[in-house]
Design brief:
By secondary structure, the protein is of the alpha+beta class. Helix content is about 15%, strand content about 30%. It contains two helices and twelve strands. The strands form three sheets. Strands 8-7-2-1-11-12 form a six-stranded mixed β-sheet, with no helix packed on it. A four-stranded antiparallel β-sheet has the order 5-4-9-10, with no helix packed on it. A two-stranded antiparallel sheet has the order 3-6. It is globular and about 40 Å long.
C-alpha cells in the first residue's frame, strides 16, 4: 500500500509539471507577456489645469499607469496619436515606471526655443480636444506590438477622461484631474 501512494504521488507530481510547467518555463512565459501598462488618464483641453514644469504652459497631457508586479523599463517604447505611424515618439534610455506608479507625458511638441532644458517627458505631438487615439507600443523596431491604446471623443476644458479604478476598462469624466496619482 505504501508503494501505491508513492507511485500515485510521483504520477501527480509529473502531471503537475507537465500542465503547469517548471519554474524556468513560467519565467519565460512572463517575459513574453506584454507589461501591464495602461494609458490611464487624459487631459486634451488643458487651459487652466496644471502647468508643464519645463515650458510653463498649460499643455495637454496623459499618464501611464503600471498595474503589474514589477518595475517596467520603458526605454525604447513608442507613443503615437496616429496608428499609421506607431513609432512617432520614443521613450529615451532610462525611462522607467515603478510598480503601481504613474508617468506623466506632456503633449506639446516643444521647440528648443520654448523649452531649452527639458526634465520631463514631452511627446512630439499634441492632443486634439475634439478626440483622437493615443497608443503605446513595445520596443519592437517594427512597432507592431501594441501594449495599450485609447480612442477618445470630444473633451471638456480642464477635465480628464480617466480609468476608474486605475488600469480598469471603466473610463469616466473626472472634474478634478489627478496627474501622477490614483484616480480612485
Amino acid at each position: 500500500m505504501k508503494y501505491f501512494f508513492l507511485v500515485v504521488g510521483q504520477i501527480l507530481a509529473s502531471l503537475c509539471l507537465l500542465m503547469c510547467g517548471s519554474k524556468e518555463d513560467a519565467s519565460l512565459n512572463t517575459a513574453a507577456s506584454p507589461p501591464a501598462l495602461f494609458i490611464n488618464e487624459i487631459v486634451a483641453d488643458n487651459e487652466t489645469g496644471i502647468k508643464d514644469p519645463d515650458c510653463g504652459k498649460f499643455s495637454d497631457w496623459f499618464e501611464i499607469y503600471n498595474g503589474g508586479p514589477v518595475e517596467v523599463d520603458m526605454s525604447g517604447m513608442y507613443l503615437t496619436d496616429d496608428l499609421e505611424e506607431p513609432l512617432k515618439w520614443q521613450f529615451p534610455d532610462g525611462a522607467a515606471i515603478a510598480v503601481g506608479g504613474f508617468l506623466l507625458i506632456w503633449c506639446d511638441n516643444p521647440t528648443f526655443e520654448d523649452c531649452p532644458d527639458l526634465t520631463v517627458f514631452h511627446a512630439n505631438f499634441k492632443l486634439r480636444k475634439g478626440g483622437e487615439v493615443i497608443a503605446l507600443f513595445d520596443t519592437d523596431e517594427n512597432g507592431n506590438r501594441e501594449i495599450d491604446s485609447i480612442r477618445f471623443g470630444r473633451q471638456e476644458r480642464d477635465r480628464s477622461w480617466a480609468r476608474k479604478p486605475d488600469g480598469s476598462e471603466n473610463w469616466q469624466k473626472m472634474s478634478i484631474p489627478t496627474p501622477g496619482k490614483s484616480n480612485d
